[in-house]
Design goal:
Layout: E1 3-10, E2 15-21, H1 24-33, E3 47-55, H2 58-71, H3 74-82, H4 84-93
Antiparallel strand pairs: 1-2, 1-3
InterPro entries: GIY-YIG_endonuc (IPR000305), GIY-YIG_endonuc_sf (IPR035901), UPF0213_domain (IPR050190)
Organism: Leptobacterium flavescens
Protein name: GIY-YIG nuclease family protein
Length: 96
């Protein structure tokens, strides 16, 4: 089963959110409709997909998601999109 790490962005909040899923279209719709009532993303409905990292396994996706969250850096998130080699290094570091 394909898993992805996704980064969504809210212009209204000027914030990013990082998550992992096996069904990105469904998860994106859930964030946009406030499906997760008490979650961070329920504060607004303007979430758009900023970036996606396709992973080889759920375990790899979880580890990459955690790594990105631990960085706590907007610059790092922008650099993931700008420099594909960063993503390849992450995928290599967190093999399946």
């Amino acid at each position: 089963m394909q898993h992805s790490v996704y980064i969504i962005y809210s212009e209204k909040m000027d914030k990013f959110y990082v998550g992992e899923t096996s069904d990105l279209p469904k998860r994106l719709e859930e964030h946009k409709t406030g499906f997760y009532i008490s979650s961070y993303t329920s504060k607004t409905r303007d979430w758009v997909l900023f970036f996606e990292i396709e992973c080889d396994s759920k375990n790899q996706a979880i580890k990459i998601e955690k790594h990105i969250k631990e960085m706590k850096s907007r610059t790092y998130i922008h650099n993931l999109k700008k420099y594909p080699e960063i993503v390849e290094k992450l995928k290599g570091k967190y093999l399946k």
